[in-house]
Design goal:
357 residues, alpha/beta, Udp-n-acetylmuramoylalanyl-d-glutamate--2,6- Diaminopimelate Ligase, Chain: A, domain 1, UDP N-Acetylglucosamine Acyltransferase, domain 1, ten-stranded parallel β-sheet, 6 helices, 43 strands, 29% strand, flat
Length: 357
C-alpha cells in the first residue's frame, strides 16, 4: 500500500531554495522559550491557510491580511516588506522576502509537493525481466513495463500505465494513471504526464494510390523525445516521427487535449492551451504562446515569441515571425490587421444598399 504525506521543510531551508531573505518573527514579550525554527508543509491562500501553510502577498493590504491569517509564513516583495517593517510593528510571522512572490509561491508548491513515504513495485504490476529501475522508483497497480524499459531515480509510474519496449524515463518524472508510452520514447528529467496521455503513437501519414484511391501508411518509425521539465496535460497525444523525430524541448507546458503530429519540433518554454492541434513537420519557436483551439497546418513555422490567439488558424507552409506580436483569426494575421478587417466589415454592413453597390 502506498501512503502519501507532505514534505515538511524548515523555513530557512525553503528560503535558501527560493533564494529569498529570511526575516524571523519578532520575539514575543516575556516568552523565554522562543524558537524561530518554523516549518511549513503546504502552500495556501491567506483565507485557507493553516498553521503549517506558506502564503504570499504582493501589496501592503494583502500582507496585512496574510499576517492576520493562520499561515506559518508569508512571501513578500522587498518593497512591501520594507514598508511594513519601517513602521516598526512587531512581526507576527516570519517573512520570506523575494522579488517575485507569486513565482516563489509556485516554486515552493513544487518543493512541498506530496511525496510518497513508501516506494517499490505494486504486486499487480507486470515488469519484463530486462526492466531497470533506479532507486526510490514507484510502480503503481496494474502498470505494464515492456522489455528494456529504464526508469530513473524517484520517478513514479501511476496505476494502469503501459510502457512499451525500450522506453526510457529519467529521474523525478511523474506519469499519472493510464498513460501509454509507445516503444522507444524517451522522457528526460522531471517530466510530468497527466492521465490518459498517449506518447509516441503513429503519425497520420498515408500514401494514396493514384489508380485505385487506396491509402497505404507511410512508415512511422521515428522517435519521440521529451526534454527536461516538460508538463503534458490530460488526454494529450504526441506522435512519434515518421522517419526522423518529434521533439518537445525543455520547459514547455502543454494543456489538456492537445495533439502534436509527427516530426513536429516544439521549442523551449512554449505554452500551449487546450484543444490545439499541430500538423506534421511544423515547428514552434522558443517562448511562443498558443491559445486554445489553435490549428496549425503541416510544414508551418511559428517563430520565437509569437503569440497565437485562441482559435487562430495557420495555413500549411506559412511562416509567422515577430517576438511579442499577437496573431489572430483564420487565417492568422497580426491582431491590428485582423481588427481593422473586422471594423471594415462592420462598416460595410451598416451602409445603405445604394452605397454598397
Amino acid at each position: 500500500m502506498l501512503v502519501y504525506h507532505n514534505a515538511m521543510l524548515l523555513l530557512r531551508q525553503l528560503a535558501e531554495a527560493l533564494q529569498a531573505e529570511y526575516v524571523p518573527r519578532s520575539r514575543p514579550a516575556g516568552e523565554k522559550n522562543f524558537s524561530a525554527a518554523e516549518c511549513v508543509d503546504r502552500v495556501a491562500s491567506a483565507r485557507n491557510a493553516t498553521g503549517t501553510s506558506l502564503t504570499f502577498a504582493e501589496s501592503e493590504a494583502t500582507l496585512q491580511e496574510a499576517l492576520g491569517s493562520a499561515a506559518a509564513a508569508v512571501l513578500a516583495t522587498p518593497q512591501v516588506a520594507k514598508a511594513f517593517l519601517f513602521e516598526a510593528q512587531p512581526l507576527a510571522k516570519p517573512l520570506l522576502v523575494v522579488a517575485q512572490p507569486r513565482l516563489a509561491f509556485a516554486q515552493a508548491a513544487q518543493y512541498l509537493r506530496a511525496a510518497q513515504s513508501s516506494t517499490g513495485v505494486h504486486r499487480t504490476a507486470i515488469l519484463a525481466s530486462s526492466v531497470k529501475l533506479a532507486e526510490d522508483v514507484s510502480i503503481g497497480p496494474y502498470a505494464v513495463l515492456g522489455e528494456h524499459v529504464a526508469i530513473g531515480a524517484r520517478s513514479r509510474i501511476g496505476p494502469g500505465c503501459v510502457l512499451a519496449d525500450g522506453v526510457k524515463i529519467g529521474a523525478d518524472c511523474i506519469l499519472h494513471p493510464r498513460v501509454v508510452v509507445y516503444a522507444g520514447v524517451e522522457l528526460q528529467q522531471r517530466v510530468q504526464v497527466h492521465a490518459g496521455c498517449v506518447l509516441g503513437s503513429d503519425g497520420f501519414g498515408y500514401v494514396r494510390d493514384a489508380e485505385t484511391g487506396a491509402y497505404t501508411q507511410f512508415p512511422q518509425q521515428g522517435r519521440l523525445a521529451i526534454e527536461d521539465d516538460v508538463e503534458i496535460g490530460a488526454n494529450t497525444t504526441i506522435d512519434r516521427g515518421a522517419l526522423e523525430e518529434t521533439r518537445i524541448a525543455r520547459g514547455t507546458k502543454l494543456d489538456n487535449l492537445v495533439h502534436i503530429g509527427h516530426n513536429v519540433r516544439v521549442g523551449r518554454n512554449v505554452v500551449m492551451a487546450a484543444q490545439t492541434g499541430i500538423s506534421g513537420s511544423s515547428t514552434v519557436g522558443d517562448g511562443a504562446v498558443l491559445g486554445g483551439q489553435v490549428g496549425i497546418g503541416e510544414h508551418a513555422e511559428i517563430g520565437e515569441g509569437v503569440i497565437l490567439g485562441g482559435g487562430a488558424g495557420v495555413l500549411s507552409k506559412k511562416k509567422l515571425r515577430g517576438a511579442g506580436i499577437v496573431f489572430w483569426g483564420r487565417p492568422a494575421q497580426p491582431l491590428r490587421e485582423y481588427l481593422k478587417g473586422l471594423a471594415t466589415l462592420a462598416r460595410l454592413t451598416r451602409l445603405p444598399r445604394k452605397e454598397k453597390e
